[in-house]
Amino acid sequence: MSINKNKCIIIVMCVFFSLSLFGCKYDFNKSIYMKNKPTNYYYTKLLMKDLSLEKPVELYTLYMNFYKKKDFSKDDLSTFIQFFNSLNNDSFIAKPPNLPAKPLYKIFLTFSVNKYVINIYNENVISIYPWDGDYSMDYIDTSKMYKAYNLFGLCKYLIPK
Prior knowledge:
Elements: H1 5-20, H2 42-53, E1 58-63, E2 68-71, H3 74-85, E3 92-93, E4 105-110, E5 115-120, E6 125-130, E7 138-141, H4 151-158
Antiparallel strand pairs: 1-2, 1-4, 3-7, 4-5, 5-6, 6-7
């Protein structure tokens, strides 16, 4: 029984290739490569930039207690723009200690490239983050905001209890 030299080389290459695939499951520690969040309004700034460049492809809210979904109209988009224009540096806060684990409403904004989620906990606190963000959420205090621009009131209007 003679073994062809080419067959032997192919077998060795297949064994080597299959053994090398075992090393692909290594889990890197991402904290080594990640820096601190640049600002406490980092994700909000990205969302405002996307809103200024294009209209969302998809924009809806989800009532988390009964998982009711409601799409926003084009008129409601102006409320978002007014909401973001009324923010200032004092609006951005650290994560409140008594924040509920589950938000009351979630708003999903989908653009051609990015997707954002806005958690609305109550009429005073919301958070913003992208679908695949690496940093912690942006927390916003909306207690001093004009009530017509408050996203909690908008969601409550769209999905009454």
